[in-house]
Write a structure and sequence with these properties.
The model has no long low-confidence stretch (mean pLDDT about 85). It contains 23 helices and no strands. The radius of gyration is 30 Å and the shape is elongated. By secondary structure, it is mainly α. The chain has a domain of about 70 residues: Alpha Horseshoe (Serine Threonine Protein Phosphatase 5, Tetratricopeptide repeat), CATH 1.25.40.10. Helix 3 runs antiparallel to helix 4, helix 9 packs antiparallel against helix 10 and helix 16 packs antiparallel against helix 17.
């Protein structure tokens, strides 16, 4: 089992550890090794079972407590992680660095950054070389915006271990947040030299490329994420976004529909309203206003009048209806927006445009004037005003020519 563990064949190693624990029921080492293997394999519930067995045999094993906290936290059971932390305090003669580092990770995941940084600092005071200590502290510092100090800690870690994948990934985050995207990409390339299939590096590469407007690079990166992790929750959506940014709406549509199907999967948690709105915007950009309108109508049924997304959703719905040639419906929604937000210039612009399409130029003039009273420098309304002036001149010239022809007859 230990030989297989050293060559990273964790599933086979776990099988050996399980067999050893069956033969030696009271032996701690194979059960502890089985718990560690389950942690590496992402089998967190199984890890908890093995580690509980170890601690029943000997509650003084600090490493078992640290791994138990990690297992509960990785399983998103943070209350149990905190309970295990306090049980470790009672069981151990002195709280050691590994348990503090494990607790720091749980706190950081929950956004309790100050407590996470405190735990990491205390752990490093007890043992400056504790495994993962500097990384946990750097992660907490990044979360509190202390990027310079985090960078110093990470550089120290990388000087001692240039191939530390987690340090390279975290340092790439720090560099990207400091607008040093080229250096961040160098860190990611180093990770991919060491682990070509490292999905976290590909995800970050896609994110950095999108933020820099390098959409072809982003498309390739998110495509690799999709290949490595076919069920990745947002890879398909990111691919659609990059395709839309490259002006390839037809290629983006299948990815959007696939993502929409996953959002509507009843076995998954309900998406947030912000996500529904974002996807609706992408459908509109891809040239599918009907799908956009359908999603927005469903979303609006769930939003109260005072919800901050209510007006934005109605505005987008009006645009989708106009794009789908449902002029009267779009105008009705725009008027509803104005009842909720009387100064909405975008809705006045849409109503003016709808009036022009219906040849109701007097109404269009009214909406343009109302909008320009709110913002005399609005370019869209000024362009509409120019169009209306030319329409008026054209109408006058047509009528004048008809009168002249009539008199000549």
């Amino acid at each position: 089992g230990l030989t297989l563990e050293r060559v990273r064949r964790d599933a086979e190693a776990l099988s050996s550890f399980e067999q050893a624990s069956r033969l030696l029921e009271d032996a701690i080492d194979p059960q502890l090794a089985a718990g560690a293997a389950c942690l590496r394999l992402g089998r967190f519930t199984d890890a908890v079972v093995w580690l509980d067995r170890v601690l029943k045999l000997d509650p003084k094993i600090e490493l078992a407590w640290a791994m138990l906290v990690d297992a509960h936290a990785s399983n998103e059971n943070h209350d149990s992680a905190e309970t295990a932390f306090y049980m470790a305090q009672d069981a151990l003669d002195e709280q050691g660095a590994p348990v503090l580092i494990a607790m720091s990770g749980s706190l950081l995941t929950r956004g309790l950054v100050d407590r996470a940084v405190w735990c990491a600092n205390e752990a490093l005071k007890k043992d400056p070389d504790v495994q993962g200590g500097r990384l946990r502290l750097a992660g907490g510092l990044v979360a509190t915006g202390q990027n310079q100090r985090a960078s110093q800690i990470l550089l120290q870690e990388l000087r001692e271990d240039p191939g530390n994948i987690q340090a390279l990934l975290l340092h790439s985050d720090v560099l990207a947040e400091s607008s040093r995207s080229n250096e961040a990409m160098i860190c990611l390339h180093r990770v991919l030299e060491l682990e070509p299939a490292n999905i976290d590096a590909h995800i970050r590469g896609g994110q950095f490329a999108m933020s820099e407007g390098r959409f072809e690079e982003a498309f390739i990166a998110w495509g690799l994420v999709r290949r490595l992790h076919p069920s990745h929750p947002v890879a398909g959506l990111r691919i659609a976004q990059t395709l839309l940014s490259m002006h390839r709406p037809a290629a983006a549509r299948p990815h959007l529909h696939e993502y929409l199907d996953s959002m509507q999967d009843s076995s998954m948690p309900d998406p947030a309203p912000e996500e529904w709105l974002h996807v609706a915007e992408l459908f509109l950009a891809s040239g599918e206003p009907e799908v956009c309108a359908t999603q927005l109508q469903q979303l609006l049924l769930t939003l109260e009048d005072g919800h901050p997304l209510k007006v934005k959703s109605l505005r987008l719905l009006a645009v989708a209806l106009f794009a789908n040639d449902k002029i009267d419906n779009g105008a009705s929604v725009s008027r509803k927006v104005l009842r909720l937000e009387p100064t909405c210039i975008a809705s006045m612009h849409n109503l003016a445009l709808a009036s022009m399409k219906s040849n109701r130029f007097r109404s269009a003039w009214g909406w343009v004037r109302r909008g320009l009273r709110q913002d005399p420098l609005d370019n869209d309304l000024r362009r509409l005003r120019s169009r209306l002036i030319w329409e008026s001149i054209g109408t006058f010239c047509t009528q004048l020519s008809k009168r002249i022809v009539g008199k000549q007859k």
